[in-house]
Design brief:
- It comes from Candolleomyces eurysporus.
- Keywords: Repeat, Signal.
- This is Nephrocystin 3-like N-terminal domain-containing protein.
- About 60% of the residues lie in helices and about 5% in strands.
- The protein contains 14 helices and 2 strands, in the order αααβαβαααααααααα.
- Helix 4 (about 85-100) links the parallel strand 1 and strand 2.
- Helix 6 (about 135-155) packs across helix 8 and helix 13 (about 255-260) packs across helix 14.
- It is extended, with a radius of gyration of 25 Å.
- The two termini are about 30 Å apart.
C-alpha cells in the first residue's frame, strides 16, 4: 500500500487536471506525502480526497466533459498482502463518504471474497454484488471475434482460407469454443494465442488446423503441456526454463544469459 495513494493521485491529476494545483500545494506543505513517512489516511486526504473536494467546492468540475460522478476503480484488492493497510484504506474512504454523502465520487472495488475486506464492506452505503453470477460468454465472444478478425488481417493463410471457404471460425466453431472456455478470460486469451501462433518445425500446423485441437484440451493444463512440448526442442529451452523456475530472486534476461553462458537473444527466443 506504500505507493497506493501516490498512484491514485497521479491518475487523478491526469483525469482531472484541475486537481493538480491542490495536489502540488499539499506536497509542498508536506513532502512526506510522497513517501511512507506519513499514514495512508494522511496520504489519501492530502493527495486525493482533499484536492477532489476542493475542485468540487470551487465549482471547477463544471469545465470538465465528464457527466455524472467520477469513478475510482480498484481491481484485485485481495492481492495486496498488507491486510491492515487495505482495512485502513476502506475505513478511511467510508468515513469520507459519511462526511460528504453528496460528493460526485464513487469507488468500485473488485476482489475475491476475503474476510478482512468483506467485513469492512458489509455496511450501509456499500453495494455488494457477486460477479460469479455474471455470465461472461457474450464478452468473451466479442473478444474472440475481434481478435480473430485482427489475426486475419495479418495472416495471408487465414485470409486465403476465408476467401475460399467463407467465415472462419464458423459460427458453430465459435459456439463450441465459447462453451469449451467456460467463462474464463484467461483461458480464452491463452487458447487464442495458441491457435494463431506461427508454425514451427516442431509444429507445422496452421491456425485452421489448431482450432479443433483446442476443443480436445482440458483447460489450461493440457494447453500449457502442448505449448511446452512444442518448445522443448528449442536450444537451451530446458536450462533457461529450469533456471527461471528455480531462481530464489528473479534475474533479467542479461543476467540469465550471463549465468548460463549463452547469448541474450537465445533467452529471448525461448521466452
Amino acid at each position: 500500500m506504500s505507493r497506493f495513494a501516490v498512484t491514485l493521485a497521479s491518475q487523478l491529476a491526469a483525469a482531472l487536471p484541475a486537481t493538480v494545483p491542490f495536489i502540488e500545494a499539499a506536497v509542498n506543505a508536506e513532502p512526506g506525502l510522497l513517501t511512507d513517512q506519513v499514514s495512508l489516511a494522511t496520504q489519501l486526504d492530502g493527495l486525493i480526497l482533499s484536492p477532489f473536494l476542493s475542485v468540487v467546492n470551487e465549482g471547477i468540475l463544471g469545465g470538465t466533459p465528464a457527466k455524472g460522478p467520477f469513478l475510482i476503480m480498484i481491481d484485485g484488492l485481495d492481492e495486496c498482502e498488507d491486510k491492515q493497510g487495505v482495512e485502513g484504506f476502506i475505513d478511511h474512504i467510508l468515513n469520507f463518504f459519511e462526511e460528504h454523502p453528496t460528493i460526485p465520487l464513487r469507488v468500485f472495488i473488485a476482489s475475491r471474497v476475503e474476510q478482512h475486506i468483506r467485513e469492512r464492506l458489509e455496511v450501509d452505503g456499500v453495494l455488494l454484488d457477486n460477479l460469479d453470477s455474471h455470465a461472461t460468454d457474450k464478452d468473451i465472444q466479442k473478444f474472440l471475434q475481434v481478435s480473430f478478425q485482427t489475426a486475419a488481417k495479418r495472416d495471408r493463410l487465414i485470409r486465403a482460407y476465408i476467401r475460399t471457404r467463407g467465415t472462419w471460425p464458423t459460427i458453430s466453431d465459435m459456439d463450441k469454443l465459447i462453451d469449451h472456455i467456460g467463462g474464463s478470460f484467461v483461458l480464452a486469451s491463452t487458447i487464442f494465442k495458441f491457435i494463431i501462433q506461427p508454425a514451427s518445425e516442431e509444429d507445422p500446423t496452421t491456425p485452421i488446423e489448431r482450432l479443433p485441437l483446442t476443443l480436445k484440451m482440458n483447460g489450461l493444463d493440457s494447453l500449457y503441456a502442448q505449448t511446452l512440448s512444442r518448445s522443448q526442442n528449442i536450444p537451451h529451452f530446458r536450462n533457461i526454463i529450469s533456471t527461471i523456475a528455480l531462481l530464489k530472486a528473479p534475474l533479467p534476461i542479461v543476467g540469465i544469459s550471463d549465468l548460463l553462458g549463452i547469448e541474450a537473444f537465445e533467452v529471448v527466443r525461448v521466452l
